[in-house]
Design the sequence.
Protein backbone atom coordinates (compact mmCIF):
# COMPACT_ATOMS: atom_id res chain seq x y z
CA UNK A 1 0.00 0.00 0.00
CA UNK A 2 1.22 3.50 -0.83
CA UNK A 3 0.97 5.96 2.03
CA UNK A 4 -0.86 9.26 1.66
CA UNK A 5 0.00 12.28 3.80
CA UNK A 6 -3.09 13.49 5.66
CA UNK A 7 -1.10 16.50 6.89
CA UNK A 8 0.14 17.65 3.48
CA UNK A 9 -2.65 20.19 3.02
CA UNK A 10 -3.43 18.47 -0.30
CA UNK A 11 -6.66 16.50 -0.77
CA UNK A 12 -6.20 12.74 -0.88
CA UNK A 13 -7.65 12.48 -4.40
CA UNK A 14 -5.04 14.98 -5.63
CA UNK A 15 -2.27 12.98 -3.95
CA UNK A 16 -3.50 9.78 -5.61
CA UNK A 17 -3.81 11.49 -9.00
CA UNK A 18 -0.26 12.86 -8.67
CA UNK A 19 1.08 9.39 -7.87
CA UNK A 20 -0.74 7.92 -10.87
CA UNK A 21 0.45 10.76 -13.10
CA UNK A 22 4.03 10.12 -12.00
CA UNK A 23 3.62 6.42 -12.74
CA UNK A 24 2.18 7.19 -16.18
CA UNK A 25 5.04 9.59 -16.99
CA UNK A 26 7.61 7.00 -15.87
CA UNK A 27 6.11 4.36 -18.17
CA UNK A 28 4.36 2.10 -15.67
CA UNK A 29 1.30 2.51 -17.90
CA UNK A 30 1.86 3.32 -21.55
CA UNK A 31 -0.57 5.17 -23.85
CA UNK A 32 -3.47 2.88 -24.70
CA UNK A 33 -3.21 0.86 -21.50
CA UNK A 34 -5.65 1.00 -18.60
CA UNK A 35 -4.77 2.64 -15.29
CA UNK A 36 -5.88 0.90 -12.08
CA UNK A 37 -9.63 0.72 -11.54
CA UNK A 38 -11.48 2.51 -8.76
CA UNK A 39 -11.58 -0.77 -6.84
CA UNK A 40 -7.83 -1.28 -7.16
CA UNK A 41 -7.13 2.32 -6.08
CA UNK A 42 -9.47 2.01 -3.13
CA UNK A 43 -7.61 -1.10 -1.98
CA UNK A 44 -4.10 0.16 -2.75
CA UNK A 45 -4.48 3.51 -0.99
CA UNK A 46 -7.17 2.55 1.55
CA UNK A 47 -9.40 5.38 0.35
CA UNK A 48 -13.10 5.75 -0.36
CA UNK A 49 -14.34 4.80 -3.80
CA UNK A 50 -15.48 8.39 -4.34
CA UNK A 51 -11.92 9.57 -3.65
CA UNK A 52 -10.61 7.09 -6.22
CA UNK A 53 -13.22 8.30 -8.73
CA UNK A 54 -12.14 11.89 -8.15
CA UNK A 55 -8.52 10.89 -8.78
CA UNK A 56 -9.61 9.37 -12.12
CA UNK A 57 -11.49 12.58 -12.95
CA UNK A 58 -8.37 14.62 -12.20
CA UNK A 59 -6.32 12.48 -14.58
CA UNK A 60 -8.94 13.16 -17.25
CA UNK A 61 -8.88 16.92 -16.53
CA UNK A 62 -5.10 16.91 -16.98
CA UNK A 63 -5.36 15.02 -20.27
CA UNK A 64 -3.55 11.96 -18.90
CA UNK A 65 -6.38 9.44 -19.34
CA UNK A 66 -9.87 9.15 -20.78
CA UNK A 67 -12.77 6.93 -19.73
CA UNK A 68 -13.51 3.99 -22.01
CA UNK A 69 -16.84 2.21 -21.40
CA UNK A 70 -16.33 -1.36 -20.32
CA UNK A 71 -12.56 -0.94 -20.01
CA UNK A 72 -11.89 1.86 -17.53
CA UNK A 73 -9.51 4.80 -17.73
CA UNK A 74 -7.12 4.59 -20.68
CA UNK A 75 -3.81 6.48 -20.85
CA UNK A 76 -3.83 9.05 -23.64
CA UNK A 77 -0.98 9.83 -26.06
CA UNK A 78 1.81 11.87 -24.47
CA UNK A 79 1.02 14.92 -26.65
CA UNK A 80 -2.25 15.45 -24.72
CA UNK A 81 -0.66 15.47 -21.26
CA UNK A 82 -0.56 18.63 -19.16
CA UNK A 83 2.78 19.77 -17.78
CA UNK A 84 3.75 18.15 -14.45
CA UNK A 85 2.68 19.99 -11.32
CA UNK A 86 5.32 21.23 -8.89
Sequence:
Amino acid sequence: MTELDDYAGVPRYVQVARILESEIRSGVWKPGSAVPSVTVLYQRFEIARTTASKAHARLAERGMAVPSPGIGMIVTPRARWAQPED
Notes: The mean pLDDT is 93.
